Structures are given as structure tokens and as C-alpha cells.
């Protein structure tokens, strides 16, 4: 939640909720909840992922960090099956663009709640070092927006994602595939004054895969430190499909490849260096060299 009219003097709470723990498999949560889609949105602290920047798929297709007021259930079983199921305020389609739904996130205290959404997650962690599953977010996002004839615009968002994480014997693998669709985009474009290649995407999709290996145990025995080279590949398109009468912006289809190194003297402290090669269909992307110091407390 946020207070204040602008950044100056604001206080922001990323998430915070009350939880009634009834059974390991049945707990009730209410408050400011993190949307349980993908990986990064719930595990977004910088020491928990490789690279100075989050994957762009986790910003453009799944708009992390993404939170909302809501209520729901969460739990897990002894066999390693876990779930989350929430009812939350939906997005605000008035702020969507050709670059995705990220600006449609609401910030709790001033959220418009004419439309609600259902979001959930099912994952399996029954094998050592493995976590894989699926997640979704579905709901209208018009939030009382109307077209020129005074008709409500539903702008239903349906976002689905698959994820996996594997961490064993120094090897780390993770990946996400996400796909979303939005209804009423033709009317939404006209209401927002979007024309030509500036259309909101009727469909958006993307994936990323990250691989890393801790080489320090090969160099130093009995060390608690961590040193891992990594590679990350992602491809995404926020205009995978647009309505008839609109065109695609080639800059919205993008491929990123990152090569880098992560050093952790402590699990909550990370020093990172990486080179990010960016490419898009308009040949306008700019490569980037990053250095970061991250900590979690």
C-alpha cells in the first residue's frame, strides 16, 4: 500500500497480511498479498536471483513486484503439494500499453475495486531440490471504464504461467513460461486514444531460462561462500497479437541473453556482474553492462 500523492514523503508496504493457521493444508490470509504467479513475484529479493536486473519477462509479462488487497487460502501437504488461491482487486486497464500490463498494477490504499480477480498457484516440492508448478490470474480490469457509447469495457485479463526450479549439488536451473490474453482491446484502444502500432496486445507471452553452477567448492574445500557463473536467455512479446486494424511494433518482440557471475559471502549478500545482450525486431535495443551489490535483511 502507498500513501501520499507523489514519491516525496511516501511510505510503501510491499506486502502484509494476517494469517489464520488452521491446518498445514488450510490457512486463511487477508491483507496486502503478493500475486502468486511465476517465480520472481514472490521471490524477488535481489540475492535470490542471478543478474543485476530481474528477467524482463518477470516485469513485462508478469509485472513483478505485483501485490493487491485480497483474501484467500494457502496450504501444503506432507507429500510436497502446495497451493494458494486468492480473490484480489484486479488490474486497471486504463493504464495498459503496447509495452504490457505493468502500469495497470494498483497500489492497495487507492486501488479501484469495481472489478476483482481470482489468482492461484499449484506447485510440487516433493523431490529434493525441485519446485515446479502452474499459476494463473483471471479477472476483468475495466474498473468502470466505458467506451464512447457508454458501454462498460470488461478488458478481461487471463494470465497463465508454468515454472520450475532445480537446485542440487551446486547446479541451479529455473525457468518460466507465461501467456496472457486481454479482451475488448479494440474498444479499449479507441477509448484510450491508441492507434497504429501503439495497440495494447490482445495476447502477450514470454519465457526465460536461467542456469548457474557454484564452482567455489571445486576451488576451496569446506567453504560457506558461493561463486557461480550463470547464463540466462529470455524471449517475450507484449504484442504477440493485436486487433484487426492495428499493427505490431517490432520493438515489442525482444530477446535477451545475459552472462555473468554471482558471488555470495553470505546467503543474504550478493555481488553481481553481468553483460546483457538485448535484441528486438526493430534492431533498436541497447546492450548493457551491470554491476550490483545486493543485500537482504
What features would you describe in this structure?
The chain has helices at residues 57-60, 185-192, 216-219, and strands at 16-23, 26-34, 67-76, 81-89, 116-124, 130-140, 156-168, 171-182, 203-213, 226-241, 253-266, 269-280, 288-295. With 297 residues, the chain is mainly beta. It has a domain at 16-213. Strand 3 and strand 4 (81-89) form a beta hairpin. The longest helix has 8 residues, at 185-192. The two termini are 20 Å apart. 34% of the residues are buried.
Which range best describes the helical content: under 10%, 10-25%, 25-40%, 40-55%, 55-70% or over 70%? under 10%
> What is the topology, as strand order, of the major beta sheet?
1-2-3-4-5-6-7-8-9-10-11-12-13
Integer-rounded radius of gyration: 20 Å
Form type: globular
Mean pLDDT: 95
Element string (H = helix, E = strand): EEHEEEEEEHEHEEEE
Tell me the number of strands. Answer: 13
The structure class reads mainly beta
**Beta-strand fraction estimate:** over 45%
The assembly state of the depicted protein chains is: single chain
Enumerate how many helices there are, as a single number. 3
Runs in which pLDDT lies below 50 for 5 or more consecutive residues are none
Amino acid at each position: 500500500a502507498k500513501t501520499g500523492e507523489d514519491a516525496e514523503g511516501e511510505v510503501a508496504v510491499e506486502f502484509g497480511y494476517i494469517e489464520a493457521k488452521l491446518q498445514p493444508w488450510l490457512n486463511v490470509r487477508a491483507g496486502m498479498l503478493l500475486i502468486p504467479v511465476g517465480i520472481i513475484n514472490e521471490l524477488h529479493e535481489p540475492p535470490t536471483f542471478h543478474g543485476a536486473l530481474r528477467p524482463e519477462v518477470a516485469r513485462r509479462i508478469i509485472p513483478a513486484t505485483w501485490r493487491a488487497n485480497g483474501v484467500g487460502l494457502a496450504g501444503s501437504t506432507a507429500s510436497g503439494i502446495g497451493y494458494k488461491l486468492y480473490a484480489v482487486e484486479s488490474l486497471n486497464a486504463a493504464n495498459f500499453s503496447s509495452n504490457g500490463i505493468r502500469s495497470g498494477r494498483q497500489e492497495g490504499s487507492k486501488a479501484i475495486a469495481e472489478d476483482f480477480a481470482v489468482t492461484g498457484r499449484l506447485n510440487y516440492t516433493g523431490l529434493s531440490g525441485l519446485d515446479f508448478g502452474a499459476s494463473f490470474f483471471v479477472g476483468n480490469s475495466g474498473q468502470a471504464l466505458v467506451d464512447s457509447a457508454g458501454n462498460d469495457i470488461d478488458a478481461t485479463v487471463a494470465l497463465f504461467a508454468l515454472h520450475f526450479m532445480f537446485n542440487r549439488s551446486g547446479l541451479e536451473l529455473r525457468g518460466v513460461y507465461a501467456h496472457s490474453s486481454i479482451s475488448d482491446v479494440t474498444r479499449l484502444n479507441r477509448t484510450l486514444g491508441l492507434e497504429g502500432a501503439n495497440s495494447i496486445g490482445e495476447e502477450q507471452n514470454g519465457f526465460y531460462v536461467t542456469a548457474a553452477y557454484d564452482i567455489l567448492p571445486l576451488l576451496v574445500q569446506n567453504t560457506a561462500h558461493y561463486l557461480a557463473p550463470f547464463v540466462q536467455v529470455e524471449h517475450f512479446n507484449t504484442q504477440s497479437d493485436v486487433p484487426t486494424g492495428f499493427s505490431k511494433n517490432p520493438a515489442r518482440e525482444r530477446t535477451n541473453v545475459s552472462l555473468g557471475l554471482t558471488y555470495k559471502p553470505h546467503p543474504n549478500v550478493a555481488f553481481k556482474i553481468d553483460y546483457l545482450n538485448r535484441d528486438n525486431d526493430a534492431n533498436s535495443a541497447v546492450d548493457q553492462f551491470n554491476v550490483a551489490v545486493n543485500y537482504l535483511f
